[in-house]
TrEMBL record:
Native source species: Bradyrhizobium stylosanthis
Domain Amidohydrolase-related intervals: 263-376
InterPro entries: Amidohydro-rel (IPR006680), Metal-dep_hydrolase_composite (IPR011059), Metal_Hydrolase (IPR032466), Metallo-dep_Hydrolases_sf (IPR050378)
GO molecular function terms listed in the Swiss-Prot or TrEMBL record: hydrolase activity, acting on carbon-nitrogen (but not peptide) bonds, in cyclic amides
Pfam families: Amidohydro_1
Name of the protein this chain belongs to: Enamidase
SUPFAM superfamilies from the UniProt entry: Composite domain of metallo-dependent hydrolases, Metallo-dependent hydrolases
GO cellular component, one term: cytosol
Annotated Gene3D superfamilies: Metal-dependent hydrolases, Urease, subunit C, domain 1
Cofactor requirements of the protein: Zn(2+)
Length: 398
């Protein structure tokens, strides 16, 4: 089992130089001008040309060798349980495997696979607080897992949400996976959660696990959660007219997941673009699930939406980084001064017909990952999961 990755023990300064392409994660300016990024003590302090920046005193120098640097990918929808183990597939090391797919941050949509998961109010609150504490203390491979997302039940009252928020809980599990499945009850509890700074997500589509059920457009719109979870189904999607109704009927986040209906994912993307609401689209995997663990799930979503959805690759990467960071109020996901120094360094895969990484992704190929960095610390080098990259970065001084 992957254990907590070592943290910096003193002042640190990271310099990434000779970058070929910097993807910002921001839709309004997806490509940045520069060949160097500097980070100190885990935060980005400068972006630009090497000759113009203060690179003295670096504790780690990464020679990018012309590769692409993007924000670390964010998986907006996972179901963790305990450390780097999942009982859904009885698999160890799934979070570390996702790190090798470029994912540096994960958001829990509920710890629903916990064996014997309590459904009484005292038990579900205790489990949520435990999960929030445990995953903030333990970062498998360095990955930041925002967990502790209780699945709400009908017996809860406003004071329960106040207590959860005071204990540090900031997320609700998917509304609809517990006893609350109707619009009026969901809306009332979502309102309580929002009052105390807890963000909410709703299950959308057909049932996925025992205890879940159909959540259609009427419930989704009335509940008014902050994120419409797996709008393309997890796995079974709603009809197109209902998906369109949700997209047009609210201004909340539209989450597309790997473990959903791919045609519905492309339909949602098209509607969002027609509405000028691409900023509302975020990506998740909904893993671990019945279809397993997908270490390259977010990369595959980026490639699929770019190639089949005719979305420029530099914008597709924003759906998995900056869009999610802004919607989830995270300090990562964007390459800008003051943000966490979380990066994925990659290049087009060897022998891809694309002339560069962006063209390669838009042709449907996955990039090769050469390095992941979290809080300014190199966590992995050559990915064990992606195809080999044409060029790879290297640590030249430390």
């Amino acid at each position: 089992m992957a254990h907590d990755a070592p943290q910096a023990t003193g002042p640190s300064k990271l310099v990434i130089r000779n970058i070929g392409l910097i993807l910002s994660g921001a839709l309004e300016k997806p490509i940045l001008d520069g060949d160097t990024i500097v980070a100190e003590n885990g935060k980005i302090t400068a972006i630009g040309r090497y000759k113009d920046l203060n690179t003295e005193g670096a504790t780690t120098i990464v020679e990018a060798n012309g590769t692409t640097v993007a924000p670390g990918l964010i998986d907006s929808h996972v179901h963790p349980v305990a450390g780097d183990w999942t009982p859904r597939q009885n698999q160890i090391g799934w979070i570390d495997s996702n790190l090798h797919g470029g994912v540096t941050t994960m958001i829990s949509a509920g710890e629903v696979h916990m064996p014997g998961r309590p459904r009484d109010v005292v038990g579900l609150k205790a489990m949520a607080i435990f999960a929030q504490r445990a995953f903030w203390n333990l970062r498998p491979g360095g990955v930041k897992v925002h967990a502790g997302a209780p699945v709400i039940e009908c017996e809860m009252v406003e004071e329960d949400f106040k207590e959860l928020a005071a204990a540090g809980v900031k997320l609700l599990g998917e509304v609809g996976l517990g006893g609350v499945k109707d619009g009026p009850t969901a809306r009332k509890m979502v309102g309580w959660a929002r009052k105390y700074g807890i963000q909410s997500t709703i299950h959308t589509g057909g049932p996925s696990i025992p205890g879940s059920g159909l959540i259609d457009k009427d419930v989704v719109l009335e509940a008014d959660t902050d994120v419409v979870g797996h709008i393309n189904g997890g796995h079974t999607a709603l009809p197109d007219d209902q998906i369109r109704c949700i997209c047009e009927g609210c201004k909340r986040g539209l989450e597309i997941v790997h473990n959903g209906n791919e045609r519905s994912a492309l339909f949602t993307l098209r509607i969002a673009r027609e509405m000028g609401d691409l900023h509302r689209v975020i990506l998740g995997t909904d893993a671990p699930a019945g279809s397993g663990v997908q270490p390259l799930g977010i990369l595959r979503m980026v490639s699929m939406l770019s190639s089949l959805g005719d979305l420029p690759a530099e914008l597709a990467f924003c759906l998995a980084t900056g869009n999610t960071a802004r919607m989830r109020q995270l300090d990562c996901g964007l390459i800008e001064v003051g943000r966490s120094a979380d990066f994925v360094v990659m290049d087009k895969a060897q022998h891809s017909p694309g002339k560069n990484i962006l063209e390669s992704v838009q042709l449907g190929d996955l990039p090769g990952i050469g390095m992941t960095i979290i809080d300014g610390i190199v966590r992995t080098q050559r990915s064990r999961n992606t195809p080999p990259a044409g060029r790879v970065p290297e640590i030249v001084a430390k």
